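Researcher: Let's walk through a ligand-bound prediction step by step. First, I give you the protein sequence. Second, the SMILES string for S-adenosylmethionine. Third, you return the three-dimensional complex as structure tokens. Ready?
Model: Ready.
Researcher: Here are steps one and two:
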Amino acid sequence: MSSGDELADGGADDFELDASSAPGGIAEGAFGSGTEPIAGGAVTTERKPRQGDEFTLTIDAFDARGHGLARSGPYRFRVQRAAVGSTVRARVLRRRRDEVEAVAFDVVEGGPHAVRPECAHFRACGGCSFQDLAYAEQLAGKKRLVESALHARGLLAHGIAVEEVVPAPRIWRYRNKMEFTFSNRRWIAPAEPEGVDASFALGMHALGLYSKVVDVRACPIQSEIADAVVAASRAIAVERGLSAWDLKLHAGLLRHLVIRRAERTGEVLVNLVTSADAPELVEPFARELAARVPGITTIVQTVNSRAATTAIGERERTLLGPGTITEELCGLRFSISAGSFFQTNTLAAEGLFEAVRQEAALGPDGVAWDLYCGTGTISLVLARGARAVVGFELVASAIRDARANAERNGIANARFVEGDVLTGLSATSGLPVPDVLVLDPPRAGLHPRVVPSLAAVPARRIVYVSCNPAAAAVDVAAFAAIGWRLARVRPFDQFPHTPHVETVLTLERAP
Ligand SMILES: C[S@@+](CC[C@H](N)C(=O)[O-])C[C@H]1O[C@@H](n2cnc3c(N)ncnc32)[C@H](O)[C@@H]1O
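Model: Step three, the predicted complex:
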């Protein structure tokens, strides 16, 4: 998968920490009693770690959620807010058998890979969690994640080595899309005075505190113009007294601000998500925003009156400009609307897709099936060097976008089939027989019945794109069980400062 929407607002954990462990840190010793310190990485007590116990831990790796890993005696600790190589004081949140979850509240020593975070909101914001870890170590850790997932399924037994992670072309200002949340519950930094006004925020959910929003003043992974849009939107909303959404009461007008900036054309789309149409409030807001940030090329309003916090709404209307922006990727032009899926790191996606093209190795007579094709990006990249490509996709609007993208780029040898990969592949008569299968499934990986359903397809290669090494390992093992072998593993970093890693896995028929 390569959805890239992982950073769309949040990345916050799925539970709330109590107030005493909220972002911003806690003075060492705040939990006084019950401390059972670990010296030099070894548990010095017989008692099992309990909630509230404090330990000193040295972090040697990170897991798929970006939590630091430390081993101590019989226990494996997963430590939130702890960078690889650092030694931290951490407090136990919970324990299940020999797995202990903890949260770091003080850094004893930053370690050899520590760097100064770029962002003023680091550790408060639930977004990128690795800004204090040197980029080379981020890449090394991502490689270890892929290795350990494949190793756990016995897939690296035949001399197959995971290649070095290909770095992102740019590690700052790389995202072409960000989604911010309006809230009437601003997260308050520990240094702020008591009684400070916290009734309005526009930003990202606080790390571990989903109900609070960090008022983001600048975000170094989005474009400079996107920073200007956030600042102007906040100012206009406050000046005009517009209400921010209340997560608990389900009231308030402003819900989300989604900003997309096409890397290649510089066009900017702003999507204001509101709980009601309220044209008398929203239209002047849009006019004012366009006047303050002249680089905006289109503004759209999405109405979502439902309680669920999502930027996907019941209806959408264009307030300014054409309602879409155009992006270029791998020499192709794509039209992106507020609701379309599009790769969020344009430059890095090009590297990933080029690798898919190389691994597919289609000649002019080659045929590929692109399963889970989304809006057809991979299909269209492959179609230029092949006889035919067929994309399969569940979502009707994505299929419409894929067909329009093919037409826009004058590509006539790609066709798109709407339906569920699980059931739809039985009705493929009349379609060209594939030499290569490309699979780019959602994060959870393939439904267990998909692999057997592909057993009769006479492809010579499978190129599997995954954003979830653990799920990819399960699926590759299932292919191995029906006569395929893993031939190459190429990880790519699409999202610097996050734990996410994208991997292109090539499978061939076992001899
Ligand atoms: C990771 S995205 C693929 C993105 C695409 N390769 C691209 O770069 O634009 C996974 C896609 O699988 C689609 N999908 C999810 N379940 C599906 C299913 N059962 N059958 C077909 N498509 C499915 C999703 O709608 C989504 O577009």
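Researcher: And what stands out?
Model: Residues 1-3, 341, 343, 372-375, 377-378, 392-395, 398, 420-422, 440-442 surround S-adenosylmethionine (CB under 6 Å). Residues 1-44 have pLDDT under 50 and may be disordered.
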